[in-house]
Every structure is written in C-alpha cells, then in structure tokens.
Structure to design on (332 residues):
C-alpha cells in the first residue's frame, strides 16, 4: 500500500514475535547548506585563467605579445645588420706607425664612398650590375606574363595545378646544384649546348643573365599568377561584349589589374640579381658584379667592402620609393 506522502510502504515479518509490522522507506537525506559563516566560494582561478582574462580585457597588450617577438627579431637581425653595415662603411683603415700593418679607424668618414665615386672601375661594375638587374627583370616579366595569364584564365584546374608544380619545381633543387648544372650546359669546351647544337655562349655576361633569369623566374610567375587569378572573368567578358579586341582588353583591363603583382615580382627579381655574386662567379667568366668585389675585398678592407655593399641597398631603396609613388605597393 501507499503511505503518507505517497511513499512506498513494505510489510516485513518481525523476527522477534513473528508479527507483521509496517515500515516506511525514508527518502535520501540531502545535506543542508552550510551556515553563512562557512559558505563555500567559487573555485580558485589558476594563473592561466587569470592571464587569459587579463589579455581579453587588454587587446593592445595581446597584440604586443603576438607581434613583439617577430618584430624584435626583425629589428635585431635585419635592421640591426643594416645599421652595422652602414656604420662599418663609415670607418676606414689606416697604417700603424710601423707601416707594416693596418688598423681600423673608427672615426666616421666618407672616404670609402669618395673612393667608390672617383674610381672608374667601381662605377663601371655598379653600372653593369644595375643593367643586369634590369635585364633579368624585364626578360622574366616578358616570359612570365603570358604563362601566368594562361595558368590563371585558360588552363583547366588540373592543368593549372600541373603548371604551378612545373614552375616551382626548380626551387626544389639547391642553388649551387642549379648553378653547376648550367655550367655543364654552357661549357664551351664540351658542354651540352656545344655537343648538341655545335655552339654555346660560353662563360660571360650573357650566360650570367640567362642563368639568373632561370633562377628568379618562379619569383615573377607566382605573384603574377596570384594577381591575375583575382581578376574577375566578367571584366574580360564585358570588354569582349563591348567590341574590344585582345590587345585593347589586355592594355585597358588586364594590365591595370596586373601592375601590383608585376611590381611585387620585379622587387624579387631586381633585388636578388643586385645581390647575387656566386652564380656570376660560376658562369660569368671574368664578368664581375658588385657582390664579387665585396666578396673579394671584405677580408682585406672591410670598411670599403661595407661601403660597396651599401650600393645595392641604396638602389633598392630608390627602386621601392619609385614603385611606391605609382601606388602599386598599396595594392599588393
């Protein structure tokens, strides 16, 4: 039967007098809350939770902690190295009293830069390096534009992936491996071109530009491909519907959209050619760039080598400022 409060009632025999007695099952007791004096508070917060809450309330601190380490590395390693290079270029070497040795004079002077300006051979090498950088950039751009356009707008998805792999595949090989492979191809004494076609450009300025164009070509194609892929197909279709021919469409629609990507690719090819020296040493013959002069003199006259190494830096700063004036950097 049911007892008061609808609690179940069970009858069980009494072992003492064999009488039937009634027992009522009691519900489980719930512990009463502690008195106000001993009330339990929230669980203690760990240091990680406190730090997380602090960063959530202070987004600027969170941003500083996120960007601080890489910016510090950039300032110390990159900017610091450039500052050290600039300061070293303002030092000079002077003879000691015996005249047998030279010592470093830390008094700041522009003698090294005057020497560069007043010595025709150094001006000629700098001019040759600049012309090579321009030539490599222009050649790579002329070759990369049609390839990048085909990859972005014409090729099928499968063909696009295959072309991207083909373009970037030379980057999988080492720099020196590619250099000596080209040396074996261009060798006028029995290289691949000499044996197969009967002639070879040999080792010189032309070979150096050919190899540098090959080396930096992926750095021109990939930015152009990325830029052209963002170009809406509807713009090309609208130009065609309005009666524009292919050349007009390229000049009026494609080229303005492609300029930021072209600027990005040219920064890579131009700067890498300005700073290269070993590839020119492998296939350039007696042809010399700024890097070759710096490499040959840094153990003999470090301040002068530092001053000459500042020439490509100054050229790149001027180049970046010129591109910035066009507004291309803002669209990259």
């Amino acid at each position: 039967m049911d007892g008061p409060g609808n609690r179940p009632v069970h009858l069980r025999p009494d072992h003492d007098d064999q009488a039937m007695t009634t027992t009522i099952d009691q519900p489980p007791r719930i512990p009463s809350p502690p008195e106000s004096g001993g009330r339990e508070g929230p669980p203690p917060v760990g240091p990680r939770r406190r730090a997380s809450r602090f960063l959530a309330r202070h987004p600027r601190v969170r941003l500083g902690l996120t960007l601080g380490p890489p910016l510090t590395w950039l300032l110390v390693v990159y900017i610091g190295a450039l500052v050290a290079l600039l300061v070293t270029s303002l030092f000079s070497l002077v003879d000691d009293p015996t005249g047998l040795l030279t010592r470093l004079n830390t008094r700041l002077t522009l003698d090294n830069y005057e020497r560069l300006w007043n010595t025709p051979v150094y001006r000629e090498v700098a001019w040759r390096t600049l012309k090579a950088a321009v030539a490599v950039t222009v050649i790579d751009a002329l070759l990369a534009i049609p390839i990048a356009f085909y990859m972005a707008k014409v090729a099928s998805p499968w063909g696009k992936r295959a072309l991207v792999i083909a373009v970037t595949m030379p980057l999988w090989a080492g720099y020196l491996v590619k250099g000596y492979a080209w040396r074996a191809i261009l060798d006028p004494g029995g290289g691949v071109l000499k044996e197969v076609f009967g002639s070879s450009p040999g080792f010189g300025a032309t070979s150096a530009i050919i190899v540098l164009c090959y080396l930096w070509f992926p750095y021109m194609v990939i930015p152009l491909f990325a830029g052209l892929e963002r170009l809406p197909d509807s713009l090309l279709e609208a130009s065609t519907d309005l009666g524009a021919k292919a050349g007009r469409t390229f000049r009026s629609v494609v080229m303005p959209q492609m300029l930021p990507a072209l600027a990005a690719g040219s920064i890579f090819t131009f700067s890498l050619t300005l700073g290269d020296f070993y590839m020119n040493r492998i296939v350039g013959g007696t042809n010399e760039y700024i890097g070759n002069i710096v490499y040959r003199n840094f153990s003999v006259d470090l301040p002068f080598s530092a001053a000459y190494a500042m020439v490509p830096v100054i050229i790149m700063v001027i180049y970046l400022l010129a591109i910035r004036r066009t507004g291309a950097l803002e669209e990259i």
